[in-house]
User: What shape does this take?
Amino acid sequence: MNRGRGRGGPSPRGRGRGIRRDPVRSHPYQHSASTRPGPTRPAHHPFDLWQAEEIFPQAAPPPDDEGMAKALAARHAELVIDSALQSQLGDHFSRVTTALDNIIALQSHGDVPFIDKIRPVGSHRMGTPIRGDMTYQVVVVFKSWPTEVHLETICNKLKQDVENAYLDSGSKRTVTSSADKSSFTVASGLSSVQCLAAYQPESWLEPAKTDQIPLKDIEQALKEVERSRWCDEHITHPSTRMLIRLLSDLRQRITGFTHLTPWMATLLAHKAAVLPGRRDALQVAQAFRRLLHCLSAGLFLADNAGISDPIETPTVTVHRPLGFNRQEELCCAAQTLLRLLSHGAHREILALDQDCSGVDFQSTMNCGGIIVNPSVCVFDQDAAAPSKSDS
Assistant: This one.
């Protein structure tokens, strides 16, 4: 037997190579920063009944969703912003954007960097705001890296121009403004326009000075522009917009759903309403039921494929920022709502009745004589942490 020979023949670098062993298996909940991480388990897709309908045909007639569809439409009507308030916000937004356009055209604001363009973003741009959301978001892209002083200067200039615009139209309205490290807001009454500052550097390795806007805020503003473009192309069906509003309502009322960000809710509603290979979206009642089915099956749990972020690399999932505790709380909340929905408690879920507005979905509930127990989280942070013997 010759030394220095491994299983695959002689070593290219001499003796002592032998068979290469697998690295040490890491803990399933451990995120190692090592350059040689352990083998990872492939992400899997949770079971989706709507995509496996041909393989698993229904043995019983499908549930009658007519009552739930009417309840969803009624709740959606309550969530839509009043037409008078919507008109007031639209008028204020028009005056602010007109003032910004004038600043861009004149380019005469002293030492402040020139503005390249403005891009409306957010729920109002997408057409999915809910009652109480009276802030229109706009991304202001500068031609050079702005500072907090620059934002405050433009904010004061914008406030003065908007006040003059109201006076010229014969309307005496109080205009207020405020600025922070990465944005500025111009408000009038209940309506406000938030301007997020952005800049596209020639190189992302360009260091930021101490008085400039942090790079993470710049990147977040540019992401909002990319998300708005994606929504313009894909969020086109009325049932998808309706489902986004209903999911935004759940985010405000139900524990577990509060962990969802607006971007997560948008992608989740789009996945639930649009089936792969079909051009038409599902009816809102079917999409609402499928949304709860996907979350209950673990769509946003660890080791699941989840939903790929369309503006990031394909390997980045949208639920990645959620920790294990929040992922399980969301899954348990969806499982509880799905049980209630199967027993006809859609009015309690949507808080349509006055006595249902304060329902605690984390306690035992009685649905027409049927006791529904909420799902309980089992993830233990202390047990999941790697011990010293594992390291």
The radius of gyration is 26 Å.
